[in-house]
Specification:
The C terminus is likely disordered. The chain has 3 domains: about 90 residues, no CATH class; about 70 residues; about 130 residues, Sandwich (Immunoglobulin-like). The chain is an alpha+beta fold. The strands form 4 sheets. It has a 5-stranded antiparallel beta sheet. It is built from 7 helices and 16 strands.
Length: about 400
């Protein structure tokens, strides 16, 4: 096995092992979540009977960081002419400090203990010795479990999936490098084929995942704020900024989903691969739906350098524009039929510009963008295109040819 492949394999194994604890926490929390729902559903058929509370107490466990609570009780009840004793308070076991369930339950049970007034309990008709005082789900606990499932389970299994995917891409790239030495535009399958998909699908999926994770993390705030505000802590209202940001992220994700469903998978079909520094890049942007904007299409080709600054939590990546050119394509030049459209592209690239270099310390990328104002969500798409220095320019390309013509600008 070549040294680079062996190193990559070791890296894959290491990352999968690193991800296992995260995935394990997600699995455990997922089991607790499903177990809670299963128990709650089973308890809905339990019979309600009066119970006498003999003892109610609130146990506190203090540590340097927090205090956890657990309400405990002893009670008796009658079922089927027999007297039973019970100590199960809720469907949840153990102590916690999530919400105010334990404090509220202790206060309520203590009042019934003092007054002697019966309190309701729920009895399992199949096993009358099994009873519970509170059988309702605790939304804050479901949110807590769900948060860990999303964050830890999502991180663990996500790292595994991404690692395997990246490993597959590395093997493919390695094979293409060996097959096409000195031709880096052939080291990506889409570039080699000259049919490049837009980044819209990836942006849509990323926005949906980010919105879900953000709202999962911030949702417990909705349970904490009312109680803290009632206790006279007005600053807690600032925490509502996080759910408000979550609403904005949901709107962003919904917009991306609507755009994707409306326009589908846009591709850029290159007339020749690659685009040439000192030459040109040309082809057709294919849109799998009818679109005829009043103001036509706006194209932009950009050369950018990706610069990473800082490290750790302060690490950030930004794009610095090195070159840019825009042009308009009126509807008369677009190729349109009732079910699809195509936008002709041609940009001349100056000879003093850098070529695509994804391996550099500050990677160089060329991006082709297209936009159009239409009713509802506007159309837009972005493609990362290969631009290199070569000895040959692209062959002639007639961007104004009718739809029925053959060649690279024919709509199939």
């Amino acid at each position: 096995m070549p040294k680079n492949n062996r190193s990559a394999t070791i890296g894959v194994v290491f990352l999968c092992l690193f991800a296992l604890p995260f995935a394990g926490v997600g699995v455990v929390m997922g089991w607790l979540l499903l177990s809670s729902l299963w128990t709650w559903n089973a308890m809905q058929s339990w019979r309600e009977v009066p119970a006498i509370i003999h003892e109610a107490r609130l146990d506190e466990s203090r540590s340097d960081d927090s205090t956890t609570y657990r309400v405990e009780a002893a009670y008796t009840y009658e079922y089927g002419g027999r007297t039973f004793s019970g100590d199960r308070v809720s469907m949840y076991s153990g102590s916690d400090n999530i919400g105010a369930f334990h404090e509220n339950a202790h206060r309520e049970l203590s009042e019934h203990q003092t007054s002697g007034e019966p309190f309701r309990c729920y009895v399992n008709p199949r096993n009358p010795g099994e009873a519970v005082l509170y059988r309702d789900l605790r939304p804050e606990m479901l949110g807590f479990y769900g948060l860990f499932v999303l964050l830890f389970g999502g991180a663990g299994f996500g790292m595994m999936i991404v690692t395997v995917f990246v490993r597959g891409k590395m093997r493919t790239t390695s094979a293409l490098r060996a097959e096409y030495p000195g031709q880096p535009w052939c080291w990506r399958e889409d570039w080699r084929a000259g049919v490049i998909k837009s980044s819209n699908k990836g942006e849509m999926l990323a926005s949906v995942v980010f919105a879900v994770v953000w709202n999962a993390v911030s949702s417990p705030v909705l349970f904490i704020v009312p109680e803290e505000a009632a206790n006279g802590n007005p600053l807690i209202l600032l925490a509502l900024l996080f759910p408000l940001i979550g609403l904005g992220l949901i709107a962003w994700a919904v917009r991306n989903v609507v755009r994707w469903r409306k326009f589908g998978e846009t591709t850029f079909q290159m007339a020749a691969v690659p685009g040439v520094v000192g030459g040109a890049i040309y082809g057709l942007i294919r849109i799998p739906t009818y679109i005829r904007p009043d103001d036509g299409f706006r194209l932009r080709l950009r050369c950018v350098k990706r610069v990473t600054t800082g490290s750790g939590k302060n690490k950030s990546t930004s794009e610095h524009k090195l070159w840019e050119q825009e042009q308009s394509v009126p509807n008369e030049q677009a190729l349109v039929d009732p079910v699809q459209a195509a936008v002709p592209v041609r940009f001349d690239i100056p000879g003093d510009q850098p070529e695509t270099d994804p391996q550099a310390a500050s990677p160089i990328a060329w991006k082709l963008e297209v936009r159009a104002a239409v009713p509802g969500v506007d159309y837009s798409a972005t493609f990362e295109v290969p631009v290199f220095r070569t000895d040959a320019d692209a062959p002639g390309f007639d961007a104004t040819a009718p739809l029925a013509d053959g060649g690279a600008n024919r709509m199939d």
